[in-house]
Each structure stands twice: as structure tokens, then as C-alpha cells.
Specification:
Order of helices and strands: HEHHEEHHHHEEHH
Strand order of the largest sheet: 1-3-2
Number of domains: 2
Mean pLDDT: 87
Number of strands: 5
Structural class: alpha+beta
Number of helices: 9
CATH topology of the largest domain: Arc Repressor Mutant, subunit A
CATH architecture of the largest domain: Orthogonal Bundle
């Protein structure tokens, strides 16, 4: 199989599947090793960028997905009512940030950090497919553990969780101080 055939096969696979496909599965389908497959896909990604195409291949950890460029989203919604972008309020974003940095994490742990109930925010994040249940904690009551999804990576344009920005230690201390002040004000009332 030459490079053009391999690229056509990869494009067909990614288009037909719609979701992300693991590199190993693509390599197996085109009868190439994993490194060669990655090189071919990287070449395709660069070609799509150079040609300023309406689609792109996104790398999501050890898998790839064919998707529309985010800057062309407005044209999609002119044609179809769906897909619609999730509305991420401050509360939902705050909850998502906690989950992203602390995963796997339980609702109770999120609520301890935020200082308020988080049921609605977690349910919205699950509905938007940005967060999923990862299993249960081996503790009394067996609480659910939550973590981010591939959709989270796609939504924020990341390849992996390692790309999350590092938290500024000074900011963390400021946040802690603000939270303690809020708690104290609630107790004083």
C-alpha cells in the first residue's frame, strides 16, 4: 500500500467511524506499524492545515478523529439546529476545572472544594459529555468517581490532559483565602 492509498484508507476510516479511533486499530487496518501510521497521519494533518480545509484530524491521547474546524462551526449551525455548543456557566466551568485537575474525584470531594452542592453542575457536564463516571471508590457507600472525556479534550483543543495549564501557587493560596472568607461570612450570619 503506498502513502496515497494509506491516507485515503485512514480518511475513510476516520470519516466513517465519526468518533476517535485508536492508533493501533488504524495501523492494523492499513497493515502498517504504529510509528509509520502516526507519520502518515501527521502528514495528513499538516496537508489539511496547508490546504486550509474545513476539516481537521485531531489527536486525542493515543487516538485520532476527523472533525470540523471549530472556526467553521457557525456554518454548521446554519444548516442544522444541531450540533449546539454547551453553555458553560461559571459554576459549570468551576466544577469542570476541579474534575479536570483532581480526577478521579467524587461529588463529595468536589463539594468540599467548592463549598456548595454540585449535583446540577456535574449532571450538566455529563449531559454535555465533558465528564463521565469512571467507576466507584472503594469506600463506604461506594461513591461514583468522575473524570473528563475525549469530548473535553476536543472541546478545549487539547491532545491530552498533560496540556492543562499549571496552577499558579500564589493564585491557589488566594483562592483558598477567598473560600475561607466566604465560609466565615456564612458562619457569621
Amino acid at each position: 500500500m503506498d502513502r496515497r492509498e494509506a491516507e485515503a484508507a485512514i480518511e475513510a476510516i476516520l470519516f466513517a467511524v465519526g468518533d476517535s479511533v485508536e492508533t493501533d486499530k488504524i495501523a492494523q487496518a492499513i497493515e502498517q506499524d504504529k510509528e509509520t501510521t502516526k507519520k502518515i497521519i501527521c502528514h495528513m494533518m499538516e496537508k489539511y492545515r496547508e490546504e486550509d480545509r474545513g476539516i481537521q484530524i485531531m489527536e486525542l491521547e493515543d487516538s485520532y478523529q476527523l472533525c470540523t474546524k471549530s472556526e467553521l462551526y457557525e456554518y454548521l449551525i446554519r444548516v442544522a439546529k444541531q450540533p449546539r455548543r454547551p453553555v458553560l456557566t461559571d459554576v459549570v466551568m468551576e466544577t469542570l476545572s476541579i474534575i479536570a485537575y483532581k480526577q478521579p474525584i467524587t461529588r463529595l470531594e468536589i463539594e468540599k472544594i467548592r463549598g456548595v452542592k454540585c449535583d446540577h453542575a456535574v449532571n450538566k457536564l455529563i449531559e454535555y459529555n465533558l465528564v463521565k463516571e469512571l467507576g466507584r471508590l472503594d469506600a463506604p457507600g461506594r461513591p461514583l468517581l468522575f473524570g473528563t472525556t475525549e469530548e473535553f479534550l476536543r472541546h478545549f483543543g487539547m491532545h491530552s490532559l498533560e496540556e492543562l495549564p499549571e496552577m499558579n501557587p500564589v493564585q491557589i493560596e488566594d483562592f483558598k483565602a477567598e473560600a475561607e472568607e466566604e465560609i466565615q461570612m456564612k458562619l457569621d450570619v
